[in-house]
Amino acid sequence: MRVIGLDSGSTTTKGVLMEDDVIINQALVLTAGNPKKAMSDILETLGFDEETKLVTTGYGRKLVDADKCITEITCHAKGAKFLNPDITSIIDIGGQDSKTIKLDSFGQVEEFNMNDKCAAGTGRFVEVLMRILGEDIDHLDDFVKDAEPIKINSMCTVFAETEVISLTAKGEAREDIALGVLHSICHRIHGQYLKISPKQDELVFFSGGLSSSVAMKEILEDFTGRQLRTHPLAQYTGAIGAAKMLKKS
C-alpha cells in the first residue's frame, strides 16, 4: 500500500511517500503563507493518485481531503520512533512552535509540552535574528564556529531583536551574538524539557529544521545533559509519523 504522510507547518510543508514501511521519496517546500497550495505542490511532486492513501498533520491538516487527519504530537512520536526505535523522548524545534514529548515503554505519548504562543525558542526566532546579523540561517554552523556566546537577556522575539541591534551598535562581534541567540533558545527549550519529567541517561530524538545544525545539537546536549539523536530525515518526522498512522486505523 502506498501512503503519503503530509505535514503542513507554518514555515515549511513536508511530505513522504511510503510503501510497505519503506520511504520511497520525500519533498519539502516553503509554506509561504499559502498552506493549501504548498500541500498541493507536495502531492504533485510525490505523484499522488487515486491508488495512494493520504494522511495529514500539522497546522493546515484539514485544508485538503485526506483518508485520515491526526494531530502533530502523535505523528511526531510515531515518526521519531520509526527513525530511531531506541529513543524515549523528543525535542522538536519547528518554525513557529517547539515541543517536548515523553514516550512510554510502548512508544506511545505519555507527556508533552508545546510552546505555540511565542516565537522565542523556535526556528523563526533564529531566522529573524540571523537576518538582522546579515547572515543566512543555512550558514549557521560556520558562522558561530569559534565564537564566544554573548548573553541574550530578552526572551521575547521583539525585545530580543532590539537587544541584538543594540549589541551590534556597541561593536560586539556578530558571531558571538549569534551564538548567544542559540544559547538563549536552548535555555528556553531546556525549561520545556524539564516539564516532561525526563529520566537520567535517556536518549532524546532531536527533530525540526534546526536539528541539522551541529552547533545547536551540541549546545542543547550541554543544557539538557542528555544524549541527542537525530537523523538526516528528522525534518520529516511528522510526515513519516502521519504515513505510519494509517496502518493503525
UniProtKB/TrEMBL annotation:
Native species: Vagococcus carniphilus
Domain ATPase BadF/BadG/BcrA/BcrD type: 4-243
Keyword field contains S-adenosyl-L-methionine: no
Source organism superkingdom: Bacteria
Obligatory cofactor(s): [4Fe-4S] cluster
CDD domains: ASKHA_NBD_YjiL-like
NCBIfam families for this protein: CoA_E_activ
Name under which the protein is recorded: ATPase BadF/BadG/BcrA/BcrD type domain-containing protein
UniProt keyword list: Iron, Iron-sulfur, Metal-binding
Gene Ontology molecular-function annotations: iron-sulfur cluster binding; metal ion binding
